[in-house]
Amino acid sequence: MTRNLIATAALALALVLGATAPALTQSEEEMQFYPVNAYWTGPYAAGGSAFGGGMIDYMKLLNKRDGGINGVKMFWEKCETQYQNDRIIECYERLKNRGAGMALFHPMSTGGTYSVFERAWEDKIPILTIGYGRTDASDGRVFPYLFPLMTNYWSQNTAKIRFIGSRVGGMENLAGLKIANIYHDSAYGKETIPVLDRQAEMFGFEVHHFPVVHPGLDQKAIWLQVARRYRPDWVILRGWGVMNPTAIKEAQRVGFPRDHMVGVWWSGAEEDTIPAGDAAEGYIAAGFHPSGTDFPVIQDILTYVYDADDGELPRERVGSIYYNRAIVWAIVSTEAIRTAMDMFGDRPVSGEELQQALEKLTLTSERIAALGATGLVPPFSVTCTDHEGGASVMFQQWKNGAWVAISDWIETDQDIVRPMIEASAAAYAAEQGVDIRDCAN
To answer: Which domains are delineated in the chain?
Structure first.
């Protein structure tokens, strides 16, 4: 899958864009609409094409294997965003009234999340940001229609510091270490600066933040500064797209060991390591799911979708990190839809109904097993107060051309994260005049 991945990713970008929908046996008003806005073109297309294609593949599986969700077929439409905030807003506005109405929206961008969530709140359409987005939206009392599900950025960062602590013999040995945070100079890249600064204060390590200008192809001066002046013990890479392989190659050039680089999960896919060649050997990244095809749900997609020559992507991309992330997103999203149907009836559900279902969404080990996703999706549970869910984080390392898991699931440190979330959410509520919901009722 490795060497062929780059070529097949390039082929995927040439796919014809536009609406893609199943053969209609029901009218659109009788089907559940699912918007698929992603970026099949531009500097981040390798990720965006997998995200969009993977989610469509999962909906095709549900339609072909199960007849949809509880007998309600899915239909969808693609919308190209090029990872640009204004285009994400355009896609939202264009798609929100399709069929019986749009019940959810994936911005697939932290900047896009900030740009669109308030209008979606007004429209009563939940914004799902699984593994990305605005972290303080985890406080559902303040942000009823924004769901940074499973594990948010701040939580992930606490797991990352715990992982580094395990590598240096214990959290007490973090004191005195120097960590360089090399980040994409965007809302996404800046999101974890507050929690990193807080952890540095708590554990006694030093952190220095190094912004990289979009798209991140020119990093020579930054890495010279990192290696020759700052000389960190560890590097956290918070990159995206072409910034990631560039950073890995620059680390090799200046002699920084890749097994002391820990990437965010947007810096931990085959699209980040394969272009870096042998420079990527030993590089580490966080994740909230593994790669691979040895999961029953992925095998079903191959059987029902790809064996029928109906896949959205070249078959070689199935099982890659970004593809599997799309399947995780689709599973969580469609299980929320299923929960809403169980509450309100087997018909297309509205955004307001889905919001209520999301606040009751629980993915147990038993349900995950029934979905064929054991080991692919960790258990988690959402409430009115907690729009995150408390999923754990794992770490993987690039070895001999493949990602290899090197940790168990690591719990996040909510003693650090939750007070910061509540303080930030309360500040937003005060600034915007938002009433804080009483989730006890």
So the answer is: 2-151+293-391+420-432 (3.40.50.2300), 153-287 (3.40.50.2300)
